Amino acid sequence: MKELFPKEHVLGFVGSLLLTLAALTVIMFKGMSNGLAMTILLITAAAQALVQLILFMHIGETDDKKSLYVTIIYAVVVGLITVFGTLLAMVWGY
Amino acid sequence: MSKENTSAPLEYRTHENEMKIFGFWVFLGAEIVLFATLFSVYFALADRTGTGPTGKEIFEMPPVLIETFVLLTSSFLIGLGVHAMRIGRKKAMMVFYIITLLLGLVFLGVEINEFLTYIHDGATITTSAFMSALMTLLGTHGAHVTFGFLWGSAILIQIKRHGLNAKTANKAFIFSLYWHFLDVVWIFIFSFVYLKGVL
Amino acid sequence: MSFDELFAPMKEPMILAAGISIIVGAIAVVAGLTYFKKWGWLYKNWLTTVDHKKIGVMYVFVALIMLFRGGIDALLMRAQTAIPENGLLNSEHYNEIFTTHGLIMILFMAMPFIIGLMNIVVPLQIGARDVAFPRLNALSFWLFAAGAGLLNVSFVIGGSPNAGWTAYFPLAGTEFNPGVGNNYYAWALQISGIGTLMTGINFITTIFKMRAPGMKLMKMPMFTWSALITNVIITFAFPVLTVALALMTLDRQFGTKFFAMQDGGMDMMWANLFWVWGHPEVYIVILPAFGIYSEIIATFARKNLYGYKSMVMSMVIISLLSFMVWAHHFYTMGHGVMVNGVFSTTTMLIAVPTGVKIFNWLLTMRHGKIQFTTPMLYALAFIPIFTIGGVTGVMLAMASADYQYHNTMFLVAHFHYVLIPGVVFGVLAGYHYWWPKIFGFRLNEKLGKSAFWFIILGFNIAFFPLFILGLDGYARRMYTYSADTGYGPLNMVSFLGALMMGVGFILLCYNIYYSFRHSPRETTGDPWDARSLEWATHSPVPEYNFAVVPKINQLDEYWFAKKEGRDITAGEYERIHMPNNSSAPMWMAGVMFLFAFFFVFSVWAGVIVFGLATLGFLAYRSFEKDDGHYIEVAEIVETERRLGGEQ
Lengths: 94, 199, 647
Fold this sequence. Notes:
Chain B: It is a multi-pass membrane protein. Chain B: It comes from Rummeliibacillus stabekisii. The structure holds three protein chains of three kinds. By secondary structure, chain A is mostly helical. Chain A contains three helices and no strands. Chain A folds into two domains: 1-58; 62-94. Chain A is 78% helix and 0% strand. Chain A is flat. The N and C termini of chain A lie far apart (60 Å). In chain B, helix 3 packs antiparallel against helix 4 (90-120), helix 3 packs antiparallel against helix 6 (166-198) and helix 5 packs antiparallel against helix 6. In chain B, 80% of the residues lie in helices and 0% in strands. Classes of the chains: A mainly alpha, B mainly alpha, C mainly alpha. The interface between A and B is large, with 47 and 49 residues.
């Protein structure tokens, strides 16, 4: 039975639950500043994504890892440009 | 090109398999941009509620927490499924995958219930730009989970029929990447739609 | 929608004539195929093929047909505006024609032409047997064909889209556009866009995972590099279009409020999303042409490409910058100074890597022994003409000055000066250059050159006057104008130029027929004495591309091997694994065509049936057993002897 539950997966799962709890603090403590709350959410969400990518999806397990990192980073950069560029052009920039 | 690399896990065994996994990662890159676009639309429209309700008024945390816990667990379980597959435990692998898919159904049930509540409260997809963006973002994620359920079931049937071989293992592995990815998307929805919405 | 409304467009005599000619043409094709008993041949060799070369040829074939469809639109537009107060087209018809002209030329001519050339050339240049996912490649083609079909059907059934190729809201919303025209827009682009996205993934995987042994990334031919960068942009830009079109469909057919004028909707959000995709799209069509020019200039200047590394770097930088400039398409929306400043700066920055490439081409030719072949002529014409396009682009990049140019013919002249030399000349150069590789004979040089001169002179006569008209305040998309404006004479000049271009394109096609009849057959496989790997195999290329996959030690390995008298394709034959043909991609695309067609008309029963059928095809593919087949050594020996004389 034990060999079915490798340590890195169990730790990853516990980590993702803890990160969820950490994210929940933003609504548990009233009066937290908006900036701090968004920072906490950004950090916990990014950490959750990394847990999945590295511990569960094993992005770095083959010789292709460099190309895969570049692909995913490129996608994330384009995604962030789209999100923040849209906010800049459509909401903040008036 | 079809030389077998017997030291690699089953799902990487042929060059074709390697390419499929690589190609799927690239596809996930495209999916990241797809969801990023939906998020940008949502963020730009989140405060534009017109005569409809705001996020703060309609979001309810308990069902959202259930959805989050269910998806996180399913993502963990499918990871165990891949691990079981790599040590050749077909039965354990299938059990992990089946529970994963069932949790996917639970998630969908809670989400559909959430949608029905919104509609019952008079907030539909046509109520305001905010509701359109919210339901489209959630709906796209939900549609991915639904498709994943069908796809995963098809793969399980094939493993049941043909056992674990380079082909079926490859499919099961690629499916696990998809499922983990949906979990990541959900984390962002959880953080930047719900938590940010009720702040 | 009643039957009468459905065929309402046919009431217009010109559209009726177009509709009838489509039907007559279709009957002629069917009758011809039946008479010559070619159905089986067509089905077995082309419709069900997964061979990248044949798929590429089909892409180019459809692109050429679409070039004529879009070209007729263009001629009609120029004819309508040639004289003031002209009555050739009414305003509605004119709106439809400039909309479909833009859509067809960008998405159903330029895109398939470059994707077709990539299909033909990239696997050969990297020494691969096919693309990474041959079946998916066939599906990409058929989805593109289904999308193109859908857009062309709109012309006769239900009505064309008419809100411009950019389809800005609220004009494209149901309030101002109650017909089905813009539903067609959303679905035609959606279906072909999904196909394009899959092409992007397919080629990234192919280039990363299927290069010949020894071919490091920095030893790849420049066209393959440009294809890689292009497919990266495709993969990360097309999802934005997918979302934008889905939201358009939701707004138009389900009453959501994304781009609405009330309930918090944001009409300019459409423009924003459209250009988040739309600007990278410009580079998607231009970068491969840059790659083609790099190959052609190096080949016909008899020199290696100058500044290989800086060429690669500038493409990488362009690919990233292309995602950061989109708001320059709507400076006049009324942003603050900061937004326009940011996008103005990024836009001007993108001119820098492009300029680097121009200088590299010039320096490649310096001291070279230039051969003035047809492909080289296109490359030579491209440099000065494209530079005019680029420089006017920098003028438009200045946000404050843009208020003067915006939505005038100056803009129209600018992007035609970018896209025609940057894309059309590029694909035509590539088409002449790689033609002998696929068909085993060269296109006639004399006819090719006369077509070139007609096109190049016609182009400048047609578009240069538009710069002047634009600066004089002539707005784009006006179906007519009064004689008092003084726009008449230059518009007439422009129309004559357009006619000249038309003559050039007819010559170009006549050249196919002429050369097929009269050109001597190619036996060497390397008619231009070129540099990259695709010329190392026979012409026409055998199904398996290379009997023995060559080993690569350096850039332009084939060139150096030729000089040193080595044969890089020598070696022991082994049996070769190849994928099987399949009719599934064609039928699946057909089913998705019907799905989209019913969706356009909101006929939900049809949508459900064909939506489920689409899922059925996916399930079929998942459960299908298809291990491909082997080409045995004896067959390879036989093929090699037949194609290469004694080897």
